[in-house]
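step: validate -> pass
step: tokenize input -> pass
step: predict -> running
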Amino acid sequence: MRYTEERKKSINILFFIISLAGLFILPSIFYSFISEFSGRGLSSQFASELLFIVILILIYYKDLKREFKIYITNIKKNIPIMLKYYVLGIIIMIFSNLIISMIIGNVSSNESAVRESLFSFPVYTMLSIMIVAPLSEELVFRKSISPIIKNKWIYAIVCGLLFGGAHLLAGEFALINLLYLVPYGSLGFVFALMNRETKTTFSSITMHCIHNTATGILLLITYSMGVL
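step: predict -> pass
step: emit ->
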């Protein structure tokens, strides 16, 4: 267990590659093993996703322990910073989504997949977007990249592109869907800047959790009212 700054850059790059590949592969592998004992189902799927998060936490344990202390100590000072970046990301996301919807006329494949899961399995999906997504995505797309790229602007751009790109993988790919890199990438971009300024990954984890929770609740409310 070492701090990331004590590791060789090649090791940090290796951990990033493992984390990124693992995000798409390891939960499925874990699910195959877990389902042998507890059966196939959403509980096994959720356990598989949590197991991947445990591995990420172990990789960055010393950093995360230190960053959590920073987060707790400076929470009052950092709340305005977190809100500033989050509001900026939301503004970019909303306006870019409006423009894209006028061009394409429908929501992204990722958004459609999330909505379908949320309306069919609300409890599992809410737990997933509230816990699994904020932890796994922030550790993969922010924490694992941070020790590799020191320039904050390059770091934020790379985080945004990778975060946005990962959200385009759901469903059938079409070239026009690359436009969604802007709304998805905007949050990845501001979350990276947020973490650099507050010096803790728990800032983006918190805002990511709040964003996903609020979005999920709003979707369930509108669905129950027959709007969607």
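step: describe -> Residues 9-38 form the longest helix (30 residues).
step: cleanup -> pass
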